[in-house]
Amino acid sequence: xxxxxLRASPNPQLFRLGNPTIPKFGVDGLYEKTDQRxxxxxxxxxxxxxxxxxxxxxxxxxxxxRYIPRDKEAFKIKKPENFDLRPVxxxxxxxxNQWEAKKSQWVAENRDSVKRGxxxxxxxxxNQNIWELYGEWVEAQSSSMLLMTFYNSVLGMAYIPEGSYIxxxxxxxxxxxxxxxxxxxxxxxxxxxSMGVDVGSLLNFVVSVNRTNAAGERIRECVAAGTVMTFDQxxxxxxxxxxxxxVVDVRPETxxxxxxxxxxxxxxxxxVYMCQFHRSAKVGAVSYGIKVDGRSGLITVDRTxxxxxxxxxxxxxxxxxxxxxxxxxxxxxxxxxPKRIMKDGDDNFIWTKGPPDHYRFADAYDRIAADQxxxxxxxxxxxxxxx
Length: 387
Fold this sequence. Notes:
Helices cover about 25% and strands about 20% of the residues. By secondary structure, it is of the alpha/beta class. The strands form 4 sheets. It has a 9-stranded mixed β-sheet. Strands 1, 2, 5 and 6 form a 4-stranded mixed β-sheet that branches.
């Protein structure tokens, strides 16, 4: 109702305040659309204007990989509690005290926007003990969550620990397969073919051939990815690629997914499963909390755990994409969309929801299908409600 209450005001103002968490989400996404004001300080030594940045002005890595203060005088002080760490100018490389600065002011870094946005950090607080922050920073190097907290709460910056999401580099390293096969054909009859389908306004699909490497590990090699508009088109794709196991997102088109499954009941070549997410209390007892009911054709999995499993595949070189897969519209973008973060007020990780992520989940369903090729999973009777 906030916007509605402002409509009659001759001078409407709406303030949104918060600590950022991950890039482009929440308050960080709002800040990106503003003029992005930061507090600039003028160096009293060389008159260079600059925003105070933790890595630019306060710490750097030495040859051993440790983070040490840029202020070299800090090592000469016998009682560091009586001497706080000073920022070091990025231009003249000399330390200075903030209160000695001749001038400080807000500077807009994105002047194309008419909306005002401000980012402030503990580094801008004159009575902040920087030695304490340095201790927190050193401690955080052994914990991705402490590091995220430091960036979010101390520096006022969005941050995602490395390895918590799919990156362009990971995708590029995996793009070593043959060019995409947009036709299918008889050559897939003797292959172990899995297929995953995410259901939305379009049906996003991923088709993979599953092989074993010299170490006995399964390689899930994507051969095709794309979208179709109807379940009839999806049925033709399944038959064209001779898919052995297909896993389809059961929501929101439960009736149509059931009808698709019914068309393959009794088939020697193909089995179609429906999939829904359900949080699993235990991690590791069964792979990503999977439960399979062969009679109803329903599979339930833990959303977080199955996305973790597909991320691990990429990290371990067990997922291969066609060399030209990034030519598929939004494929890479949607694969990168979810981010792995810790749930507020909990010690559990979750994958974020937000930007379109259909190919990410089509790939996850394909992973589930691939596991069913070898009869994986625990089995029990489950009920599927249409409502």
